[in-house]
Automatic annotation (TrEMBL):
Keywords: Glycosidase, Hydrolase, Lyase, Manganese, Metal-binding. Binds 1 Mn(2+) ion per subunit. InterPro entries: Indigdn_synthA-like, PsuG. It comes from Thalassospira xiamenensis. The lineage of its organism: Bacteria, Pseudomonadati, Pseudomonadota, Alphaproteobacteria, Rhodospirillales. This is Pseudouridine-5'-phosphate glycosidase.
Length: 302
């Protein structure tokens, strides 16, 4: 493992003695938010994990080395650099072989977290089935990864830029449990409600930890989606975001944006259309997820 992976000393120590660790992704830093909000958010999220009793491990690839836990200067370098690949499962070997820098999406972060022995990962939103699936055949590699890699992903659901009902259907096909935390509906990232009932509702970090232990101790491999609604005071209303999303989707089509470019493009345009309100919501919900992730990791370790 050490041929490819460097675990930060603090993270390695915590893992060795069974202390709670929460994995954090880096695509949100490099491709999900502009500088300097990306750096401020990444730092705040790490602190949120610490404040709730766990050790943060931001995951990325630097110079072809897989990093589990970044130093403050690595985090800053990552937030500022504009030459960073976006990595899903298939992109990892290229990044390693070419000794490049790569930001890990949900799928790649899950893979590296599992290899390091980290069970809980907090992020903003997972990728999913894109709208107008028949035309694009765009289904995020995040979903396939959730089907086979045993890491719990705490998120605010799937962004409304996606087709949420189809995303939930595909997660069922892949055998991925979907849990809503403290609510009946699966959240839609910027909004508390998606109009879709979540298959399972659990109301405390301990219940979630018991659920995860049951799954994995029984030998059912694969991840789980923990949908944590965005904080009510920063969440947006569906009408407000729907228009921004529709315009962004039309623009993406006109510019023939496809593949891995789609999600970063839509996020940036939605931020412009909402005059920064969506970015504010995004920051608040990632922090909120880090807090829940830490509490689940603490419950799992206890
Ligand atoms: N959600 C966010 N910001 C992001 C992403 C999700 O709020 O930057 C990233 C995650 O890394 C996720 C990826 O894994 O987008 C999905 O990309 P795609 O749709 O290309 O699979
Ligand atoms: Mn895609």
């Amino acid at each position: 493992m050490s041929d490819f992976i460097d675990i930060a000393p603090e993270v390695a120590e915590a893992l060795a003695v069974g202390k709670p660790v929460v994995a954090l992704e880096s695509t949100i830093i490099s491709h999900g938010m502009p500088y300097p909000q990306n750096l401020e958010t990444a730092q705040a999220v790490e602190q949120d994990v610490r404040d709730n009793g766990a050790i943060p491990a931001t995951i990325a690839v630097i110079g072809g080395r897989c990093k589990i836990g970044l130093s403050p200067s690595e985090l800053e370098y990552f937030a500022k650099s504009t030459d960073i690949l976006k990595l899903s499962r298939r992109d990892i070997p290229y990044c390693i072989a070419k000794k490049r820098d790569g930001a890990t999406t949900v799928s790649a972060t899950m893979i590296l977290a599992e290899k390091a022995g980290i069970k809980v990962f907090a992020t903003g939103g997972i990728g999913g089935v894109h709208r107008e699936l028949a035309a694009s055949f765009d289904i995020s590699a995040d979903l396939t990864e959730l089907g086979k890699t045993s890491v719990a992903v705490v998120c605010a659901g799937a962004k409304a830029i996606l087709d949420i009902p189809m995303t939930l259907e595909h997660l069922e096909t892949l055998g991925v449990p979907v849990i809503a935390y403290g609510t009946d509906e699966f959240p839609a990232f910027y909004t508390v409600k998606s109009g879709q009932k979540a298959p399972i509702r659990l109301d405390s970090p301990i219940e979630i930890a018991e659920f995860l232990k049951s799954k994995w101790d029984f030998g059912l491999e694969g991840g789980a989606v923990i949908g944590n609604p965005p904080p009510a005071d920063k969440a947006l209303e569906l009408d407000a975001i729907e228009h921004a999303i529709d315009s962004a989707l039309i623009e993406a089509k006109g510019l023939n944006i496809h593949g891995r470019e789609v999600t970063p493009f839509l996020l940036e345009r939605v931020t412009q259309h909402t005059k920064g309100k969506s970015l504010e919501a995004n920051i608040a919900l990632v922090r909120n997820n880090a807090v829940l992730g830490a509490k689940i990791a603490v419950a799992l370790a206890g």
